[in-house]
Amino acid sequence: MPKMGSFLLLFFFIFPVFVQSQNTSFFFEGFKEADKHLTLQLGASIMSDPEGVLRLTNKSNNVIGHAFYTKPIQMIDKASSPNPSSFSTSFVFEIVPPSSGSGGYGLAFLLAPSTQLPGAEPGWSFQLNGVVARPLNVSNLPKPPQREKISASYDGNTVALISSLCVVTVLLMGLLGYFLFHRREEDSEVLEDWEIDCPHRFRYKDLYVATNGFKESEVIGTGGFGSVYKGVLSTNGSEVAVKKITRNSHQGMREFAAEIESLGRLRHKNLVHLLGWCKKKNDLLLVYEYIPNGSLDSLLFKPKNGFVLNWEQRFNIIKGIASGLLYLHEEWEQVVIHRDVKSSNVLIDAELNARLGDFGLARLYDHGGMSHTTSVVGTIGYIAPELTRTGKASASSDVFAFGILLLELATGRRPIGSSDFLLVDWVRDCQQLAQILDTADPSLNSSYSVEEMELALTLGLICSHERIEVRPTTRQVMRYLNGDDILSFVDDWGSADYSQQGSEFGSRTFQISDDCGLLDHSTKVKHSTADDPKTIALISALCIVTVLLLCIVGCFLSFRRRRNSETLEDWEINSPHRLRYKDLYAAIKGFKESEATGIGGFSAVYKGVLPNDGREIAVKKRCVA
Questions:
Q1: Is 187 a known active-site residue?
Q2: What pTM, to 2 d.p., does this model score?
Q3: How do residues 382-411 score in pLDDT, each as one tens digit?
Q4: Which residues are part of a known binding site for ATP?
Q5: Among 283-287, 425-429, 558-562, which stretch is predicted with the lowest mean pLDDT?
Q6: What is 295-503's CATH topology?
Q7: Superfamily the domain 190-290 falls into
Q8: Pick the catalytic residue: 155, 297, 340, 420?
Q9: Cα–Cα distance for residue pair 244/227, rounded to 1 Å
Q10: Binding site: which residues?
Protein backbone atom coordinates (compact mmCIF):
# COMPACT_ATOMS: atom_id res chain seq x y z
CA MET A 1 0.00 0.00 0.00
CA PRO A 2 1.16 3.57 -0.43
CA LYS A 3 1.37 5.94 2.48
CA MET A 4 -1.60 5.47 4.76
CA GLY A 5 -2.90 7.77 7.43
CA SER A 6 -5.74 7.54 9.90
CA PHE A 7 -8.85 6.02 8.30
CA LEU A 8 -12.10 6.61 10.19
CA LEU A 9 -15.19 4.72 9.07
CA LEU A 10 -18.76 4.92 10.37
CA PHE A 11 -21.23 2.33 9.08
CA PHE A 12 -24.98 2.23 9.17
CA PHE A 13 -25.14 -1.16 7.40
CA ILE A 14 -28.47 -2.58 6.09
CA PHE A 15 -28.03 -5.94 4.42
CA PRO A 16 -31.33 -7.54 3.23
CA VAL A 17 -30.70 -11.05 1.87
CA PHE A 18 -33.29 -12.45 -0.51
CA VAL A 19 -33.40 -16.24 -0.48
CA GLN A 20 -35.82 -18.23 -2.63
CA SER A 21 -37.26 -20.12 0.32
CA GLN A 22 -37.09 -17.26 2.85
CA ASN A 23 -36.58 -13.59 3.32
CA THR A 24 -33.65 -12.84 5.61
CA SER A 25 -32.56 -9.40 6.76
CA PHE A 26 -29.28 -8.40 8.38
CA PHE A 27 -28.86 -5.06 10.11
CA PHE A 28 -25.53 -3.73 11.37
CA GLU A 29 -25.59 -0.51 13.35
CA GLY A 30 -22.12 0.74 14.11
CA PHE A 31 -18.98 -0.74 15.51
CA LYS A 32 -18.85 -1.80 19.13
CA GLU A 33 -15.82 -3.20 20.83
CA ALA A 34 -17.91 -5.69 22.80
CA ASP A 35 -19.37 -7.27 19.62
CA LYS A 36 -18.04 -10.86 19.64
CA HIS A 37 -18.69 -11.30 15.90
CA LEU A 38 -16.47 -8.34 15.00
CA THR A 39 -12.88 -9.24 14.16
CA LEU A 40 -10.17 -6.60 13.77
CA GLN A 41 -6.88 -7.28 12.05
CA LEU A 42 -3.63 -5.46 11.48
CA GLY A 43 -4.00 -1.75 12.20
CA ALA A 44 -7.75 -1.68 12.77
CA SER A 45 -9.19 -0.51 16.10
CA ILE A 46 -12.43 0.77 17.63
CA MET A 47 -12.39 4.27 19.02
CA SER A 48 -14.02 5.06 22.31
CA ASP A 49 -14.34 8.76 21.61
CA PRO A 50 -16.43 9.25 19.55
CA GLU A 51 -18.17 5.96 20.16
CA GLY A 52 -18.87 3.61 17.23
CA VAL A 53 -16.08 4.83 14.97
CA LEU A 54 -13.74 2.33 13.31
CA ARG A 55 -10.14 3.32 12.73
CA LEU A 56 -8.67 1.07 10.02
CA THR A 57 -5.15 2.47 10.07
CA ASN A 58 -3.01 4.37 12.45
CA LYS A 59 -0.67 7.24 11.70
CA SER A 60 2.17 5.00 10.52
CA ASN A 61 3.16 4.55 6.89
CA ASN A 62 2.43 1.56 4.65
CA VAL A 63 -0.17 -0.12 6.83
CA ILE A 64 -3.67 -1.48 6.22
CA GLY A 65 -6.46 -2.61 8.49
CA HIS A 66 -9.18 -5.27 8.22
CA ALA A 67 -12.52 -5.43 9.96
CA PHE A 68 -14.69 -8.58 9.53
CA TYR A 69 -18.15 -9.48 10.76
CA THR A 70 -17.59 -13.22 11.19
CA LYS A 71 -21.11 -14.44 11.91
CA PRO A 72 -21.96 -16.66 8.86
CA ILE A 73 -24.79 -15.57 6.57
CA GLN A 74 -26.72 -18.30 4.76
CA MET A 75 -26.23 -17.43 1.08
CA ILE A 76 -26.90 -20.88 -0.51
CA ASP A 77 -29.79 -23.11 0.48
CA LYS A 78 -28.86 -26.42 -1.15
CA ALA A 79 -32.22 -27.92 -0.21
CA SER A 80 -34.19 -25.44 -2.29
CA SER A 81 -31.71 -24.24 -4.90
CA PRO A 82 -28.06 -24.86 -5.60
CA ASN A 83 -27.58 -21.29 -6.79
CA PRO A 84 -26.49 -18.50 -4.48
CA SER A 85 -29.17 -16.16 -3.31
CA SER A 86 -29.25 -12.66 -4.71
CA PHE A 87 -28.98 -9.73 -2.34
CA SER A 88 -28.83 -5.97 -2.26
CA THR A 89 -27.05 -3.83 0.27
CA SER A 90 -26.39 -0.18 1.00
CA PHE A 91 -24.11 1.55 3.47
CA VAL A 92 -22.94 4.99 4.35
CA PHE A 93 -19.32 5.79 5.08
CA GLU A 94 -16.88 8.64 4.88
CA ILE A 95 -13.13 8.61 4.49
CA VAL A 96 -11.36 11.58 6.02
CA PRO A 97 -7.73 11.96 4.96
CA PRO A 98 -5.48 14.09 7.14
CA SER A 99 -4.58 16.39 4.27
CA SER A 100 -5.58 17.09 0.72
CA GLY A 101 -3.60 15.34 -1.99
CA SER A 102 -2.57 12.37 0.13
CA GLY A 103 -3.17 8.96 -1.46
CA GLY A 104 -3.60 5.36 -0.43
CA TYR A 105 -7.18 5.54 0.81
CA GLY A 106 -9.93 3.16 -0.32
CA LEU A 107 -12.58 0.68 0.73
CA ALA A 108 -13.19 -2.87 -0.53
CA PHE A 109 -16.53 -4.62 0.12
CA LEU A 110 -16.31 -8.38 -0.28
CA LEU A 111 -17.85 -11.71 0.60
CA ALA A 112 -15.36 -14.41 1.51
CA PRO A 113 -15.48 -17.88 3.01
CA SER A 114 -12.61 -17.05 5.34
CA THR A 115 -11.18 -14.16 7.27
CA GLN A 116 -7.61 -15.18 6.58
CA LEU A 117 -6.63 -12.40 4.20
CA PRO A 118 -3.07 -11.37 3.41
CA GLY A 119 -1.43 -8.49 5.14
CA ALA A 120 -0.05 -5.40 3.49
CA GLU A 121 0.11 -6.10 -0.24
CA PRO A 122 1.67 -3.86 -2.86
CA GLY A 123 -1.28 -4.60 -5.22
CA TRP A 124 -4.87 -5.76 -5.12
CA SER A 125 -7.03 -8.23 -7.08
CA PHE A 126 -10.56 -9.57 -6.85
CA GLN A 127 -9.25 -13.12 -6.43
CA LEU A 128 -8.57 -13.91 -2.81
CA ASN A 129 -7.70 -17.26 -1.31
CA GLY A 130 -8.41 -18.99 -4.62
CA VAL A 131 -11.96 -17.70 -4.76
CA VAL A 132 -13.03 -15.41 -7.58
CA ALA A 133 -15.18 -12.63 -6.22
CA ARG A 134 -18.58 -12.15 -7.78
CA PRO A 135 -18.99 -8.97 -9.82
CA LEU A 136 -20.74 -6.16 -8.04
CA ASN A 137 -23.25 -4.12 -10.08
CA VAL A 138 -22.98 -0.47 -9.13
CA SER A 139 -24.59 0.99 -12.27
CA ASN A 140 -27.91 1.67 -10.56
CA LEU A 141 -26.42 3.51 -7.63
CA PRO A 142 -27.11 7.27 -7.48
CA LYS A 143 -24.21 9.59 -8.00
CA PRO A 144 -22.81 11.03 -4.80
CA PRO A 145 -23.25 14.77 -4.27
CA GLN A 146 -20.52 16.85 -5.74
CA ARG A 147 -18.32 18.10 -2.98
CA GLU A 148 -17.02 21.60 -3.26
CA LYS A 149 -13.34 21.61 -3.82
CA ILE A 150 -11.20 23.42 -1.34
CA SER A 151 -9.22 25.79 -3.43
CA ALA A 152 -7.30 28.93 -2.91
CA SER A 153 -9.29 30.58 -5.71
CA TYR A 154 -12.36 32.64 -4.91
CA ASP A 155 -15.31 33.90 -6.91
CA GLY A 156 -15.57 37.49 -8.00
CA ASN A 157 -17.75 38.58 -5.12
CA THR A 158 -15.39 37.14 -2.54
CA VAL A 159 -12.38 38.73 -4.18
CA ALA A 160 -14.15 42.07 -4.30
CA LEU A 161 -15.13 41.74 -0.66
CA ILE A 162 -11.60 40.91 0.42
CA SER A 163 -10.19 43.77 -1.61
CA SER A 164 -12.71 46.19 -0.16
CA LEU A 165 -11.93 45.17 3.39
CA CYS A 166 -8.21 45.47 2.75
CA VAL A 167 -8.66 48.93 1.27
CA VAL A 168 -10.81 50.00 4.21
CA THR A 169 -8.23 48.70 6.66
CA VAL A 170 -5.39 50.49 4.89
CA LEU A 171 -7.38 53.71 4.69
CA LEU A 172 -8.29 53.46 8.35
CA MET A 173 -4.69 52.97 9.38
CA GLY A 174 -3.61 55.78 7.08
CA LEU A 175 -6.17 58.17 8.53
CA LEU A 176 -5.14 57.21 12.04
CA GLY A 177 -1.49 57.78 11.26
CA TYR A 178 -2.22 61.11 9.60
CA PHE A 179 -4.32 62.21 12.56
CA LEU A 180 -1.62 61.32 15.04
CA PHE A 181 1.09 62.97 12.96
CA HIS A 182 -0.98 66.09 12.34
CA ARG A 183 -1.86 66.36 16.01
CA ARG A 184 1.76 65.98 16.99
CA GLU A 185 2.83 68.63 14.50
CA GLU A 186 0.04 70.93 15.66
CA ASP A 187 1.03 70.60 19.28
CA SER A 188 4.75 70.73 18.65
CA GLU A 189 6.58 73.69 20.05
CA VAL A 190 9.83 75.19 18.89
CA LEU A 191 12.65 75.35 21.41
CA GLU A 192 14.33 78.69 21.08
CA ASP A 193 18.06 79.20 21.49
CA TRP A 194 17.58 81.34 24.57
CA GLU A 195 15.60 78.54 26.23
CA ILE A 196 18.55 76.16 26.19
CA ASP A 197 20.23 78.12 28.95
CA CYS A 198 17.06 78.20 31.08
CA PRO A 199 16.03 75.23 33.21
CA HIS A 200 13.01 73.44 31.77
CA ARG A 201 11.34 70.07 32.05
CA PHE A 202 12.84 67.28 29.95
CA ARG A 203 10.98 64.25 28.65
CA TYR A 204 12.01 61.03 30.35
CA LYS A 205 12.48 59.16 27.07
CA ASP A 206 14.90 61.83 25.85
CA LEU A 207 17.07 61.41 28.94
CA TYR A 208 16.76 57.60 28.69
CA VAL A 209 18.09 57.71 25.12
CA ALA A 210 20.76 60.27 25.99
CA THR A 211 22.27 58.04 28.70
CA ASN A 212 21.90 54.75 26.73
CA GLY A 213 19.24 53.53 29.12
CA PHE A 214 21.13 54.66 32.22
CA LYS A 215 23.85 52.07 31.69
CA GLU A 216 26.46 51.60 34.36
CA SER A 217 29.15 52.38 31.80
CA GLU A 218 27.82 55.94 31.61
CA VAL A 219 28.18 56.63 35.34
CA ILE A 220 30.62 59.46 36.00
CA GLY A 221 29.89 59.94 39.67
CA THR A 222 28.01 58.52 42.63
CA GLY A 223 26.68 60.41 45.61
CA GLY A 224 24.63 59.78 48.69
CA PHE A 225 21.28 60.19 46.91
CA GLY A 226 22.04 58.61 43.53
CA SER A 227 24.33 58.39 40.52
CA VAL A 228 25.36 60.87 37.83
CA TYR A 229 25.35 59.73 34.18
CA LYS A 230 26.97 61.26 31.15
CA GLY A 231 24.63 61.71 28.20
CA VAL A 232 24.23 63.33 24.79
CA LEU A 233 20.90 64.99 23.98
CA SER A 234 19.51 63.87 20.62
CA THR A 235 17.85 67.26 20.09
CA ASN A 236 21.00 69.34 19.80
CA GLY A 237 23.89 66.93 20.43
CA SER A 238 25.03 68.70 23.57
CA GLU A 239 26.67 66.74 26.36
CA VAL A 240 24.89 66.72 29.71
CA ALA A 241 25.26 65.21 33.14
CA VAL A 242 22.08 63.54 34.44
CA LYS A 243 21.72 63.04 38.16
CA LYS A 244 19.30 60.22 39.00
CA ILE A 245 18.21 60.49 42.61
CA THR A 246 17.42 57.30 44.52
CA ARG A 247 13.69 56.69 44.09
CA ASN A 248 13.01 55.36 47.59
CA SER A 249 14.66 58.22 49.35
CA HIS A 250 12.34 60.74 50.98
CA GLN A 251 15.31 62.95 51.64
CA GLY A 252 16.18 62.55 47.95
CA MET A 253 12.82 64.11 47.03
CA ARG A 254 13.57 67.05 49.27
CA GLU A 255 16.97 67.34 47.63
CA PHE A 256 15.35 67.25 44.17
CA ALA A 257 13.00 70.11 45.03
CA ALA A 258 15.79 72.10 46.65
CA GLU A 259 18.04 71.93 43.62
CA ILE A 260 15.29 73.15 41.26
CA GLU A 261 14.19 75.93 43.59
CA SER A 262 17.72 77.18 44.12
CA LEU A 263 20.14 76.20 41.37
CA GLY A 264 17.41 76.45 38.70
CA ARG A 265 17.43 80.23 39.01
CA LEU A 266 21.08 80.82 39.84
CA ARG A 267 23.37 82.13 37.12
CA HIS A 268 27.07 82.63 37.82
CA LYS A 269 30.24 81.71 35.98
CA ASN A 270 31.52 79.73 38.96
CA LEU A 271 28.34 77.69 39.51
CA VAL A 272 27.24 74.55 37.66
CA HIS A 273 24.21 75.41 35.52
CA LEU A 274 21.04 73.38 35.90
CA LEU A 275 19.61 72.85 32.39
CA GLY A 276 16.40 71.19 33.50
CA TRP A 277 14.71 68.39 35.36
CA CYS A 278 12.37 65.42 34.95
CA LYS A 279 10.15 63.42 37.26
CA LYS A 280 8.56 60.16 36.15
CA LYS A 281 6.66 58.50 38.99
CA ASN A 282 9.48 57.90 41.45
CA ASP A 283 12.37 58.69 39.13
CA LEU A 284 13.89 62.04 40.00
CA LEU A 285 16.28 63.43 37.41
CA LEU A 286 18.33 66.62 37.27
CA VAL A 287 20.10 67.67 34.07
CA TYR A 288 23.29 69.74 34.31
CA GLU A 289 25.76 71.02 31.82
CA TYR A 290 28.56 68.50 31.39
CA ILE A 291 31.88 69.55 32.91
CA PRO A 292 34.66 67.62 31.11
CA ASN A 293 37.45 67.62 33.72
CA GLY A 294 35.40 66.15 36.53
CA SER A 295 35.73 67.08 40.17
CA LEU A 296 38.51 68.89 41.96
CA ASP A 297 38.84 65.91 44.27
CA SER A 298 39.76 63.67 41.31
CA LEU A 299 42.29 66.14 39.95
CA LEU A 300 44.00 66.53 43.33
CA PHE A 301 44.06 62.96 44.61
CA LYS A 302 43.42 60.73 41.55
CA PRO A 303 45.01 62.58 38.63
CA LYS A 304 45.05 61.00 35.17
CA ASN A 305 48.22 60.69 33.11
CA GLY A 306 50.23 62.27 35.89
CA PHE A 307 48.55 65.65 35.50
CA VAL A 308 49.19 67.97 38.45
CA LEU A 309 47.51 71.32 38.98
CA ASN A 310 50.14 74.05 39.28
CA TRP A 311 49.87 76.79 41.86
CA GLU A 312 48.55 79.43 39.46
CA GLN A 313 45.71 77.10 38.47
CA ARG A 314 44.99 76.27 42.10
CA PHE A 315 44.91 79.89 43.21
CA ASN A 316 42.54 80.70 40.34
CA ILE A 317 40.30 77.83 41.49
CA ILE A 318 40.33 79.21 45.04
CA LYS A 319 39.20 82.62 43.87
CA GLY A 320 36.53 81.05 41.64
CA ILE A 321 35.01 79.10 44.53
CA ALA A 322 35.05 82.20 46.72
CA SER A 323 33.38 84.24 43.97
CA GLY A 324 30.62 81.65 43.65
CA LEU A 325 30.03 81.64 47.41
CA LEU A 326 29.89 85.44 47.49
CA TYR A 327 27.15 85.33 44.83
CA LEU A 328 25.21 82.79 46.89
CA HIS A 329 25.55 84.57 50.20
CA GLU A 330 25.22 88.24 49.26
CA GLU A 331 24.63 88.96 45.59
CA TRP A 332 21.54 86.89 44.75
CA GLU A 333 17.98 87.82 45.69
CA GLN A 334 18.04 85.45 48.66
CA VAL A 335 20.72 83.98 50.86
CA VAL A 336 21.67 80.51 49.63
CA ILE A 337 23.50 78.28 52.11
CA HIS A 338 25.18 75.46 50.21
CA ARG A 339 25.84 73.30 53.30
CA ASP A 340 28.09 70.83 51.45
CA VAL A 341 31.11 72.72 50.13
CA LYS A 342 33.87 70.18 49.48
CA SER A 343 36.36 69.23 46.79
CA SER A 344 34.13 66.53 45.23
CA ASN A 345 31.36 69.13 44.72
CA VAL A 346 33.66 71.51 42.85
CA LEU A 347 33.87 70.72 39.12
CA ILE A 348 36.64 71.92 36.84
CA ASP A 349 35.70 73.02 33.33
CA ALA A 350 37.79 72.91 30.16
CA GLU A 351 39.52 76.20 31.07
CA LEU A 352 40.30 74.88 34.56
CA ASN A 353 37.82 77.24 36.18
CA ALA A 354 36.02 76.17 39.34
CA ARG A 355 32.26 75.45 39.17
CA LEU A 356 30.51 74.83 42.47
CA GLY A 357 27.66 72.31 42.13
CA ASP A 358 25.42 69.79 43.91
CA PHE A 359 22.91 72.03 45.67
CA GLY A 360 20.91 69.11 47.07
CA LEU A 361 21.42 70.20 50.66
CA ALA A 362 21.08 73.92 49.97
CA ARG A 363 18.67 76.08 51.93
CA LEU A 364 17.37 79.58 51.16
CA TYR A 365 16.23 82.43 53.34
CA ASP A 366 15.74 86.16 52.94
CA HIS A 367 18.50 88.64 53.48
CA GLY A 368 18.41 89.78 57.07
CA GLY A 369 16.59 86.62 58.14
CA MET A 370 17.78 83.43 59.77
CA SER A 371 18.07 79.85 58.60
CA HIS A 372 15.51 77.50 60.18
CA THR A 373 17.45 74.31 59.56
CA THR A 374 17.85 72.07 62.60
CA SER A 375 19.60 69.03 61.11
CA VAL A 376 23.32 68.49 60.90
CA VAL A 377 24.26 67.69 57.32
CA GLY A 378 27.49 67.79 55.41
CA THR A 379 30.65 65.77 55.10
CA ILE A 380 33.10 64.76 57.81
CA GLY A 381 36.00 67.15 57.88
CA TYR A 382 33.98 70.06 56.46
CA ILE A 383 31.28 70.47 59.13
CA ALA A 384 31.59 73.56 61.29
CA PRO A 385 31.74 72.82 65.03
CA GLU A 386 28.69 74.94 65.90
CA LEU A 387 26.47 72.77 63.67
CA THR A 388 26.88 69.84 66.05
CA ARG A 389 25.45 72.00 68.83
CA THR A 390 22.76 74.14 67.14
CA GLY A 391 22.15 72.39 63.80
CA LYS A 392 21.65 75.81 62.21
CA ALA A 393 23.60 76.35 59.02
CA SER A 394 24.71 79.81 58.03
CA ALA A 395 26.99 81.57 55.59
CA SER A 396 29.70 81.22 58.22
CA SER A 397 29.39 77.41 58.16
CA ASP A 398 29.95 77.56 54.37
CA VAL A 399 33.02 79.72 55.03
CA PHE A 400 34.33 77.07 57.44
CA ALA A 401 34.05 74.38 54.75
CA PHE A 402 35.69 76.75 52.26
CA GLY A 403 38.64 77.17 54.65
CA ILE A 404 39.14 73.39 54.80
CA LEU A 405 38.93 73.24 50.99
CA LEU A 406 41.50 76.03 50.77
CA LEU A 407 43.92 74.04 52.94
CA GLU A 408 43.34 70.97 50.72
CA LEU A 409 44.38 72.90 47.61
CA ALA A 410 47.47 74.34 49.26
CA THR A 411 48.74 71.17 50.96
CA GLY A 412 47.47 68.43 48.63
CA ARG A 413 46.15 66.52 51.66
CA ARG A 414 42.65 65.38 52.62
CA PRO A 415 40.92 66.97 55.65
CA ILE A 416 41.09 63.76 57.64
CA GLY A 417 43.78 61.15 57.25
CA SER A 418 44.88 58.00 58.95
CA SER A 419 46.02 57.83 62.56
CA ASP A 420 43.70 60.62 63.70
CA PHE A 421 45.36 63.11 61.39
CA LEU A 422 43.43 66.38 61.09
CA LEU A 423 44.61 68.71 58.37
CA VAL A 424 43.61 71.90 60.13
CA ASP A 425 45.43 70.94 63.34
CA TRP A 426 48.60 70.08 61.46
CA VAL A 427 48.68 73.34 59.51
CA ARG A 428 47.92 75.30 62.66
CA ASP A 429 50.77 73.65 64.55
CA CYS A 430 53.19 74.41 61.73
CA GLN A 431 52.01 78.01 61.62
CA GLN A 432 52.67 78.47 65.30
CA LEU A 433 56.19 77.15 64.70
CA ALA A 434 56.67 79.59 61.82
CA GLN A 435 56.96 76.61 59.49
CA ILE A 436 53.69 77.06 57.62
CA LEU A 437 55.35 76.80 54.19
CA ASP A 438 56.44 73.28 55.14
CA THR A 439 52.81 72.23 54.66
CA ALA A 440 52.78 73.23 50.96
CA ASP A 441 52.02 70.43 48.51
CA PRO A 442 55.34 68.69 47.66
CA SER A 443 54.07 67.95 44.14
CA LEU A 444 54.39 71.67 43.41
CA ASN A 445 58.17 71.40 43.81
CA SER A 446 58.23 74.85 45.45
CA SER A 447 56.97 76.40 42.21
CA TYR A 448 54.57 78.84 43.80
CA SER A 449 54.34 82.40 45.00
CA VAL A 450 55.36 82.49 48.64
CA GLU A 451 53.01 85.37 49.40
CA GLU A 452 50.05 83.62 47.77
CA MET A 453 50.87 80.33 49.49
CA GLU A 454 51.11 81.98 52.91
CA LEU A 455 47.90 83.88 52.21
CA ALA A 456 46.06 80.70 51.21
CA LEU A 457 47.26 78.73 54.24
CA THR A 458 46.61 81.52 56.75
CA LEU A 459 43.23 82.37 55.24
CA GLY A 460 42.32 78.69 55.31
CA LEU A 461 43.11 78.57 59.03
CA ILE A 462 41.08 81.69 59.81
CA CYS A 463 38.08 80.54 57.73
CA SER A 464 38.13 77.17 59.52
CA HIS A 465 38.44 78.72 62.97
CA GLU A 466 36.36 77.18 65.75
CA ARG A 467 34.77 80.48 66.73
CA ILE A 468 32.28 82.03 64.31
CA GLU A 469 33.25 85.61 65.12
CA VAL A 470 36.81 85.03 63.97
CA ARG A 471 35.82 83.78 60.52
CA PRO A 472 35.60 86.38 57.76
CA THR A 473 32.60 86.90 55.51
CA THR A 474 32.75 85.76 51.91
CA ARG A 475 33.12 89.37 50.80
CA GLN A 476 36.10 89.79 53.10
CA VAL A 477 37.55 86.56 51.75
CA MET A 478 37.34 87.93 48.21
CA ARG A 479 39.06 91.16 49.27
CA TYR A 480 41.91 89.20 50.85
CA LEU A 481 42.34 87.03 47.77
CA ASN A 482 42.26 90.04 45.43
CA GLY A 483 44.80 91.91 47.59
CA ASP A 484 42.37 94.68 48.50
CA ASP A 485 42.82 94.03 52.24
CA ILE A 486 45.73 92.74 54.27
CA LEU A 487 45.07 89.59 56.23
CA SER A 488 45.76 90.05 59.93
CA PHE A 489 47.39 87.33 61.95
CA VAL A 490 45.34 85.53 64.61
CA ASP A 491 47.16 84.63 67.80
CA ASP A 492 44.36 82.91 69.74
CA TRP A 493 43.39 79.90 67.68
CA GLY A 494 41.45 78.22 70.48
CA SER A 495 41.18 74.50 70.91
CA ALA A 496 39.01 73.02 68.19
CA ASP A 497 37.34 69.69 69.02
CA TYR A 498 36.13 67.85 65.93
CA SER A 499 35.46 64.52 67.65
CA GLN A 500 31.70 65.20 67.94
CA GLN A 501 31.13 66.16 64.34
CA GLY A 502 28.27 64.33 62.64
CA SER A 503 28.68 61.62 60.08
CA GLU A 504 28.42 62.25 56.38
CA PHE A 505 24.76 62.75 55.58
CA GLY A 506 23.46 60.17 53.06
CA SER A 507 26.64 58.17 53.10
CA ARG A 508 20.53 55.35 49.83
CA THR A 509 -0.78 31.88 24.45
CA PHE A 510 -7.97 27.25 20.14
CA GLN A 511 -7.95 24.90 17.63
CA ILE A 512 -11.17 23.20 16.34
CA SER A 513 -10.80 19.88 14.51
CA ASP A 514 -13.15 17.26 13.13
CA ASP A 515 -11.33 14.06 13.94
CA CYS A 516 -14.44 11.85 13.64
CA GLY A 517 -15.25 12.51 9.97
CA LEU A 518 -18.94 13.03 10.72
CA LEU A 519 -19.37 16.09 8.55
CA ASP A 520 -22.66 16.29 6.69
CA HIS A 521 -21.99 16.91 2.99
CA SER A 522 -25.61 16.35 1.83
CA THR A 523 -26.26 20.10 1.90
CA LYS A 524 -26.71 22.06 -1.29
CA VAL A 525 -23.62 22.67 -3.28
CA LYS A 526 -24.64 26.05 -4.66
CA HIS A 527 -24.60 28.85 -2.21
CA SER A 528 -24.93 32.55 -2.47
CA THR A 529 -21.84 34.48 -1.55
CA ALA A 530 -23.56 36.05 1.40
CA ASP A 531 -24.54 32.63 2.89
CA ASP A 532 -21.27 30.89 2.10
CA PRO A 533 -19.71 29.85 5.42
CA LYS A 534 -16.26 30.39 3.98
CA THR A 535 -17.10 33.96 3.03
CA ILE A 536 -18.74 34.60 6.38
CA ALA A 537 -15.71 33.20 8.15
CA LEU A 538 -13.43 35.34 6.01
CA ILE A 539 -15.41 38.50 6.73
CA SER A 540 -15.50 37.69 10.42
CA ALA A 541 -11.78 37.05 10.50
CA LEU A 542 -10.99 40.32 8.75
CA CYS A 543 -13.29 42.23 11.08
CA ILE A 544 -11.69 40.62 14.10
CA VAL A 545 -8.22 41.41 12.77
CA THR A 546 -9.22 45.03 12.18
CA VAL A 547 -10.66 45.41 15.66
CA LEU A 548 -7.65 43.73 17.24
CA LEU A 549 -5.32 45.94 15.24
CA LEU A 550 -7.10 49.06 16.42
CA CYS A 551 -7.07 47.81 20.01
CA ILE A 552 -3.34 47.09 19.81
CA VAL A 553 -2.64 50.55 18.42
CA GLY A 554 -4.80 52.12 21.10
CA CYS A 555 -3.16 50.13 23.88
CA PHE A 556 0.27 50.99 22.53
CA LEU A 557 -0.49 54.69 22.43
CA SER A 558 -2.02 54.57 25.90
CA PHE A 559 0.94 52.65 27.32
CA ARG A 560 3.39 54.97 25.64
CA ARG A 561 1.60 57.98 27.02
CA ARG A 562 1.50 56.54 30.53
CA ARG A 563 5.12 55.46 30.31
CA ASN A 564 6.25 58.92 29.40
CA SER A 565 3.84 60.69 31.72
CA GLU A 566 5.37 62.93 34.26
CA THR A 567 3.90 64.17 37.50
CA LEU A 568 3.56 67.87 38.20
CA GLU A 569 4.61 68.57 41.72
CA ASP A 570 3.08 71.20 43.98
CA TRP A 571 6.29 73.16 44.14
CA GLU A 572 6.37 73.39 40.33
CA ILE A 573 3.10 75.33 40.15
CA ASN A 574 4.60 78.42 41.71
CA SER A 575 7.74 78.27 39.59
CA PRO A 576 7.80 79.63 36.02
CA HIS A 577 7.68 76.75 33.57
CA ARG A 578 6.74 76.09 29.97
CA LEU A 579 3.01 75.62 29.29
CA ARG A 580 1.68 73.57 26.38
CA TYR A 581 0.20 75.60 23.52
CA LYS A 582 -2.97 73.48 23.38
CA ASP A 583 -3.62 74.17 27.05
CA LEU A 584 -3.37 77.91 26.48
CA TYR A 585 -5.48 77.62 23.29
CA ALA A 586 -8.23 75.90 25.28
CA ALA A 587 -7.89 78.28 28.21
CA ILE A 588 -8.65 81.38 26.14
CA LYS A 589 -11.12 79.69 23.72
CA GLY A 590 -8.87 79.74 20.69
CA PHE A 591 -7.57 83.28 21.17
CA LYS A 592 -10.96 84.82 20.47
CA GLU A 593 -11.07 88.58 20.38
CA SER A 594 -13.87 88.50 22.93
CA GLU A 595 -11.31 87.23 25.43
CA ALA A 596 -8.84 90.03 24.76
CA THR A 597 -8.36 92.36 27.69
CA GLY A 598 -5.72 94.55 26.11
CA ILE A 599 -4.20 95.17 22.67
CA GLY A 600 -0.93 96.90 21.87
CA GLY A 601 1.15 97.55 18.78
CA PHE A 602 2.74 94.13 18.57
CA SER A 603 0.85 92.08 21.15
CA ALA A 604 -2.49 91.32 22.76
CA VAL A 605 -3.41 90.13 26.23
CA TYR A 606 -6.15 87.53 26.68
CA LYS A 607 -7.99 86.37 29.77
CA GLY A 608 -8.24 82.61 30.24
CA VAL A 609 -8.85 79.78 32.68
CA LEU A 610 -6.40 76.88 32.86
CA PRO A 611 -8.25 73.56 32.31
CA ASN A 612 -6.13 71.61 34.76
CA ASP A 613 -6.70 73.63 37.91
CA GLY A 614 -9.24 76.34 37.02
CA ARG A 615 -6.92 79.26 37.72
CA GLU A 616 -7.54 82.50 35.89
CA ILE A 617 -4.57 83.74 33.90
CA ALA A 618 -3.58 86.51 31.53
CA VAL A 619 -1.85 85.40 28.32
CA LYS A 620 0.20 87.85 26.32
CA LYS A 621 0.53 86.89 22.63
CA ARG A 622 3.21 88.70 20.72
CA CYS A 623 3.36 88.95 16.92
CA VAL A 624 6.82 88.16 15.59
CA ALA A 625 7.55 89.44 12.10
A1: no
A2: 0.53
A3: 999 988 888 888 999 999 999 999 999 999
A4: 244
A5: 558-562
A6: Transferase(Phosphotransferase); domain 1 (1.10.510)
A7: Phosphorylase Kinase; domain 1 (3.30.200.20)
A8: 340
A9: 6
A10: 244
